[in-house]
């Protein structure tokens, strides 16, 4: 591949930020695409880009070798915008597009599948990453983080369903592999963590690390949507978060897939290591009152 940079969208979010850190650690050329580039990471080239403004695409893509895409859940006419973006990427000579989708997009009624099809039809070599739910959501999404830190409670409509949660740091490492190495064009990778846990088990493990009681209280679907919306989040994101919980509730998120350790050449990170590494977030709790930053 040519020596141009990887253009990363969502660089201030949970997943995009980790992709940026992983690319920097790898020493790969990098550019971040942001609505407000002056707020970009220190020492990283930042360019103006807005999914909702196709006029920003061409300049952001100029000279880029590869493109890492996230799906903004509240983007109007998302399929149309992604089609225009793929046209611009092809015209700019981008050699590879990596789309961060979601596990189950190929068989469940999730909006990500429509975007996958647009990417696949865009005329640029593509790779799809389909990770399961993130461990980091317990530490970064206010509806989970604040409840754990303030009241020792997690509440979702997931019931007793299990999920093979993945550490976002592993997603970042996987993204570096497919953005910088050959052999991944046309591949779809399902990415999971090494074990499937229900939320009572998650609560127990967090409680041991934090040395305080943490419990899981199942929520109703309407109650969960109201709680997420009350934090200032758009309805499309609230519905996607609810869908993820219901996928677990119906037993569709528990599979442990071997792809991630095969791709990375090392074991996937486990939940206990995640909880230890992020314990300072719950221990040093300060309610932010900001909107959810959940990259789905």
From TrEMBL:
<dbReference type="InterPro" id="IPR008030">
    <property type="entry name" value="NmrA-like"/>
</dbReference>
<dbReference type="Pfam" id="PF05368">
    <property type="entry name" value="NmrA"/>
</dbReference>
<dbReference type="InterPro" id="IPR051604">
    <property type="entry name" value="Ergot_Alk_Oxidoreductase"/>
</dbReference>
<protein>
    <recommendedName>
        <fullName>NmrA-like domain-containing protein</fullName>
    </recommendedName>
</protein>
<dbReference type="InterPro" id="IPR036291">
    <property type="entry name" value="NAD(P)-bd_dom_sf"/>
</dbReference>
<feature type="domain" description="NmrA-like">
    <location>
        <begin position="7"/>
        <end position="242"/>
    </location>
</feature>
């Amino acid at each position: 591949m040519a020596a141009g940079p990887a253009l990363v969208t969502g660089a201030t979010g949970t997943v995009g930020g980790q992709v940026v850190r992983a690319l920097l650690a790898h020493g790969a050329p990098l550019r971040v695409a942001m609505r407000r580039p002056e707020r970009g990471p220190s020492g990283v080239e930042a360019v103006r880009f807005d999914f909702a403004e196709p006029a920003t695409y061409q300049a952001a893509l100029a000279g880029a070798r590869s493109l890492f895409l996230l799906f903004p859940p509240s983007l109007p006419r998302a399929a149309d915008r992604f089609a225009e973006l793929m046209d611009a990427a092809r015209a700019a000579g981008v050699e590879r597009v990596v789309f961060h989708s979601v596990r189950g997009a190929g068989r469940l009624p999730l909006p990500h599948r429509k975007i996958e099809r647009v990417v696949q039809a865009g005329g640029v070599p593509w790779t799809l990453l389909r990770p399961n739910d993130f461990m980091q959501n317990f530490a970064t999404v206010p509806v989970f983080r604040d409840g754990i830190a303030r009241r020792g409670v997690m509440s979702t409509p997931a019931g007793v369903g299990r999920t093979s949660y993945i550490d976002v740091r592993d997603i970042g490492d996987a993204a570096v592999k497919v953005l910088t190495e050959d052999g991944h064009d046309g591949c779809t990778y399902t990415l999971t963590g090494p074990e499937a846990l229900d939320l009572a088990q998650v609560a127990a493990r967090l409680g041991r690390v934090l040395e305080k009681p943490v419990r899981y209280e199942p929520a109703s679907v309407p109650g969960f949507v109201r709680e997420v919306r009350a934090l200032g989040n758009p309805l499309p994101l609230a519905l996607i978060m609810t869908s993820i919980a219901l996928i677990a509730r119906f037993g569709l998120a528990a599979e442990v897939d071997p792809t991630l350790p095969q791709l990375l050449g090392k074991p996937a990170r486990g939940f206990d290591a995640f909880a230890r590494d992020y314990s300072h977030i719950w221990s040093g709790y300060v309610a932010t009152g900001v909107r959810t930053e959940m990259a789905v």
